Predict the structure.
Amino acid sequence: MDLIPPEALLDDFPPPMRAIGERLRDVVTDAVPDAVERVRPGWRLIGYDLPMGRKRVYFAFVAPENGHVHLGFEHGWAMRDPHRLLKGAGITKRVRWLTFIDVGEVDVERCIELVREAARVAAMSRGERELQSIDDAGERPSP
């Protein structure tokens, strides 16, 4: 199977969305330099895996659309989000995201914090994620 470069995926979107996508790619690689970036064509997004010994764990994504771009987190439900920036609770069980419609909206510092938190949570076992969620929320998360 031929790999699609991230730039080729972003080229299918309007210039403002490409600019946001490129900024978010930089955020992820700055936050977690050893993250493995690859296009997931079926989902039409750029996914990031965290190397964990001989395997990789999917932890983040940049998902462009024609009117906005999402920076998302596979285990967002278990992440600490002290500024309450993440969206998706009540919409999805586990995935959480930020949405940007202009490149100027990207708060690099906050995004880097969330990407690093996403990597930390992805490196945990499922049980550890559930325990953290209980500790943070004071209640058991829905499966």
About this structure: The first helix runs from residue 6 to 10.
